[in-house]
Design goal:
six-stranded mixed sheet; 0% helix; five-stranded mixed sheet; 3 domains; mainly beta; elongated
Length: 191
């Protein structure tokens, strides 16, 4: 590995070859061949932020690592660690003391509130003309649902009539689609 530092012999900034690494670096000037020690640059320590990971009614405490100058936003997709497990999560709220901002510097965050998005349970309401049947489908967070398409869940066939999204809007037009982790509820008609 080569780095550019000031050589005490040449009295100039020159390219040096790293000969050995320990608490400091032993380097050799490629211009004059002089060997000397230079201090090693300290690697920045990661900032560990307490994270509440919610997964269909159950919450566990984990953490997410950030660099000191990182910024976090509501709706960011991150990876949270809970024990030995890692989960793909979406930030649903940021807590900075008593405040709940939409974005914050990672160093100011006291707790992140998240929900898993890698594996989700989609709630489905299927109407058969007389009654509504509740169904639950566990799937990947990136699974697509399309208005007008036919699906089978628990041996019940249905056609999607509309999709209710977590952030509010209702999708009714045939062909409109979204991914499972954005869905609050799927509505269908028994077929």
């Amino acid at each position: 590995m080569f780095i550019t530092v000031t050589c005490p012999e040449c009295k100039d900034e020159t390219e040096h070859e790293v000969v050995a690494e320990s608490r400091d670096l032993l380097v050799r000037c490629t211009t004059c061949g002089h060997h000397h020690h230079i201090p090693k640059e300290k690697e920045p320590q990661p900032l560990v932020v307490k994270t509440i990971v919610s997964r269909e009614g159950e919450s566990t405490v984990g953490n997410i690592e950030f660099a000191q100058d990182d910024e976090v936003f509501v709706d960011d997709h991150l990876v949270a660690e809970v024990g030995d497990e890692a989960y793909g999560v979406e930030v649903s709220a940021i807590e900075c003391g008593a405040k709940r901002p939409k974005r914050a510097k990672a160093k100011d965050v006291t707790t992140l509130w998240t929900r898993t998005i890698d594996q989700v349970v989609v709630k489905i309401s299927v109407h058969d003309g007389r009654k509504t049947i509740p169904l639950y489908m566990e799937c990947e967070g990136e699974t697509e649902f399309v208005v007008g398409e036919k699906y089978v869940v628990d041996a019940k066939r249905f056609k999607v009539s509309h999709l209710k999204l977590r952030d509010g809007p209702l999708m009714r037009k045939e062909g409109w689609k979204t991914i499972a982790h954005r869905i609050k509820r799927v509505y269908g008609i028994r077929s």
